[in-house]
Write a structure and sequence with these properties.
Blueprint (H helix, E strand, L loop, with lengths): L1 H27 L8 H5 L22
Length: 63
């Protein structure tokens, strides 16, 4: 029982250390620099010439 408890404390300590290293790495690599850019970019209305357009007649090929 005592060795199991020590093993769990060791694993939880390693887990906390890995989480802390992951957070510091993500801050250092710039993961949190622009939080709103990608979320707002989807709302922008870009006039992309590659997007398909409707025909003037109003009839689609699917119907």
């Amino acid at each position: 029982m005592n060795s199991t408890l020590g093993f769990l404390f060791l694993l939880s300590g390693i887990f906390v250390l890995l989480i802390a290293l992951g957070v510091f790495w993500s801050i250092k690599s710039g993961q949190f620099d622009d939080l709103e850019g990608p979320a707002e970019r989807i709302l922008m209305d870009d006039d992309d010439p590659l997007l398909p357009t409707r025909r003037p007649g109003g009839k689609d090929e699917d119907s």
